[in-house]
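ingest -> validate -> predict -> emit
validate: passed (alphabet ok, no gaps, 618 aa)
predict: started
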Amino acid sequence: MCGISAYIGFREAYPIVINGLKRLEYRGYDSTGIMIFDGEEMQLSKTKGKVSDLELITDNDEVRKKGNIGMGHTRWATHGVPNDVNSHPHFSQSGDLVIVHNGIIENYDTIKKELINRGYIFKSDTDTEVLVSLIEEVKKRENCKLGQAVQLALNTVIGAYAITVFDRTKPDEIVVARLGSPIAIGVGEDNKEFFIASDASPFIEYTKNAIYLEDEEMAIIKIGKKVKVHKIHDDSKVDPIIQKLQMNLEQIEKGGYDHFMLKEIHEQPKAITDTFRGRLLADKNMIKMSSIDDNLDRFLNANRIIIIACGTSWHAGLVAEYLIEDMARIPVEVEYASEFRYRNPIITDKDIVIAISQSGETADTLAAIKLAKSKGAFVYGVCNVVGSSIARETHSGAYTHAGPEIGVASTKAFTTQITVLTLIALKLGKANNSLTDDAFNNYLHKMQLIPKQVQELLKIDEHVKSIAAVYKDATNCLYLGRGFNFPVALEGALKLKEISYIHAEGYPAAEMKHGPIALIDENMPTFVIATKKGHYEKVVSNIQEIKARSGKIIAIVTKGDTQVREIADHVIEIPETEEALTPLLTTIPFQLLSYHIAVMLGKNVDQPRNLAKSVTVE
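emit:
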């Protein structure tokens, strides 16, 4: 959940590390800190708050900024409240070692008590200070080098971590290790400089070469030498693979938009097109996905498909359940990864598990994948980040090609996940003859129109903004949808909760009368997806039930609708398409609505309180 940024080389470290922290702030922003080694002393600055608060401390202090080695951290608190003391980096008791850490050390309390018995004194409430003290104790006790001390210490801890450790007595070396939390190493020309970060965004302008550590691997990084990687538990050597980065600097800048979320909402036509590219071949009446083609028999002969995910990705999985069962007639179950991993599920080698995650680093989803694999299931990943842990841990999979998503509230990740899952459903339906040729070809041609339809839909921004102004002071909201659009109702409610902090709930429209209707009054706005196809007349009846109780209705309707327009307080029109494809359109107004309400309420839409983009801890 936290962000790590570090540098060792010939450049000034401060601007590299601080700019890296800014790009990683989506991972955590309750406190932050930086250490710069000036050749003799480690200059430390840290504070509760955001990276901008840290800059206020350091910008006018040239002494604190000089040096060619540095590490920084932006925090999402786990152990210890957000404050200056608990902020990273943390020093060992002697002051020789310094560490930044993403993850949780579960047995830290036991280790801490033992170290206290040995005379250690702790300044913070964090598990991280315990870890760096343990490394120092091992180094002293075993009279070994830093790398070996880190390895021995990590063999005694339980939990998840990505760590970067520096010893001021060895100023040409940094040690990095990971288990469950991501870490990337940027490799400069001729190994003259190295960049360490939670993802590659902090160093893309300096190098396109990156090493992604696997779980239970550590790296010893020395200026002028190749990175040495070996396993933490058995010390076996690993030949690191240097990957070429695909992202560019422009992708992670705001590009003139006020917020990353708004930029990413408007990037959806391109993101969906990029997800189609090379896969949706409407002129040839085919879908080309080698990851499905190579495993087609597994899918067609599966007893069932189990989809595992968290948050927004779980909502995309629910859409996929409707899609796959409708188009391919294969049974589908959708599970929260956080529950699946703990409930001793019944899984066989006849099952296929589809794991969905934007970051590819979601801790619960990764643990669920490992459980499914241990029981013989074939695991297929759908994620956005190339080279991420889920991409490496699954048997096969597909990237969404959404590009970097910085805003904490997912937008383009959701629509591109649905895009990939729709392609899979169509491909399977065609392969097992559940879809006729005419139906299949019609879907392909309608899907090809979706990016342009989304582009057209984004033009309603001012109309949605005017609706947002009416309902921004609501304290509770209800979101209703049926069929393919029930998950979109859930996603719409989640978006509003995430960034505006207004309580909202999503329901299947027909379930309203089984409880939620008790909430309806003149102060309760209800957002209803009432597109023309599917269960239209049933939804109209639900709307009338709400109006009979003085409820306010904001309806998403198909362009040209007149029936709902007559009874709703506000309508938002979407272009006409097949019912199964409507989630790619109906979600856009909800994204814009949540965004504008949050902005009007003065909320930080890109960094909502208590949330982080990538949940890499339990």
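The first helix runs from residue 13 to 24.
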